[in-house]
Please model this.
Amino acid sequence: MVDVFVSYSSQDRERVRDLVGEIEAIGYSVWWDREIGAGATFDREIEKAIDEASCIVVVWSKNSVESEWVRTEAHEGLTKGNLVPVAIETVRPPLAFRMLQTIDGAAPDATASLVSAIAKLLPVPSAGDGLPCVGRAREFVRIGEAVDRARRGEGALMLFSGEGGVGKTRMTLEAERIARVADVLVLRGHCSDAESPPPYQPLLEQIERLGRLVGPEAMRQRMGENATELSKLMPELNQRYADIPPYPTLPPEQERRYLLHGVAEFVARGASVQPLMLVFEDLHRADESTCILLRYLAERLKAEPVLLVGTYRDTELEPGGPFGRVLQELTRERLVEDLRLKRLQRPEIVELLVRQFGSEPPAALVELIFSET
Ligand SMILES: Nc1ncnc2c1ncn2[C@@H]1O[C@H](COP(=O)(O)OP(=O)(O)O)[C@@H](O)[C@H]1O
Ligand SMILES: [Mg+2]
Model:
């Protein structure tokens, strides 16, 4: 089975590769490999794939409008009513396809438009461990709004709280999926329960991840003039980049401000290239440095395309501990939206079982799961 069949001219293969990557990133399976065989078997394989696919994406270009193959495949989509056309160059699609709205592949929100067109034909696969996500409608709406606002340059801090196992991490994964569809770059970080974790641990993970995603040169550009501050947090940056100016000697009270300012500038610069979502997992374990950073970013990034997302166990929050204190301040200053997750209710557990197994579960099973969870 395949979710999405991509029809394109083989001359456009390199450009189509990116597009396929974006569709796969959301979790859809994509058929687009035209080099898997030859002759009759090839035809039959294409036929099978196109029959099975829930959606056919046709990539119009100067090459593909001339291709009989592509036209035939696109026709199949038109007949079945599951065609999504994208134009990667300025070109007039063949006559039969002109009444369909074609996505402009060069537009900044092209990926988001493409994914939402596909999602109309086929629900976006859910994040997590394969089980469908049930309930949480209120949270989904809040996430959608926050992602939208962040894309428009209105940053925020959103927290998911609740007891262990209630579904906090899952909500961050669902938020990540929604953010990705909207072309927001997601960087995750955790507060570990190690004896003495390095200061700013979640941030270090986020920076590492960004470096791996964008590559060394783009990373150096994004660090810009704040490379010095970042190298204080991650001394290995000095080995990777020879041109980072040395760290100045500062009195301790100035040093923290200097660091926080540098980090915030760096995050804002990155977000001006592509909106960002930074995830801070398990903040109930966060040390002083991470809490101060989070507090600083929430204030400083209010007018930047950055969504901060965090989770914490409210059952393990010490009121006098670092995160307990910062959370109080954030709440007082209205810098946080705290979504408290409750345990799933019986109807939601029924829905989960129905969606997973396709039939109504026995009442006794529901009861058992409900009492165990
Ligand atoms: N709304 C939901 N629908 C379906 N499964 C869920 C939902 N919320 C959580 N789960 C599943 O429950 C398990 C525990 O959730 P998790 O997010 O890890 O909890 P927490 O982070 O609060 O400790 C995971 O396997 C997760 O996929
Ligand atoms: Mg968790």
Summary: Strands lie at 4-7, 30-31, 55-60, 83-87, 103-104, 156-161, 185-190, 276-281, 306-312, 337-340. The chain is about 50% helix and 15% strand. The chain has two domains: 4-121, 137-340.
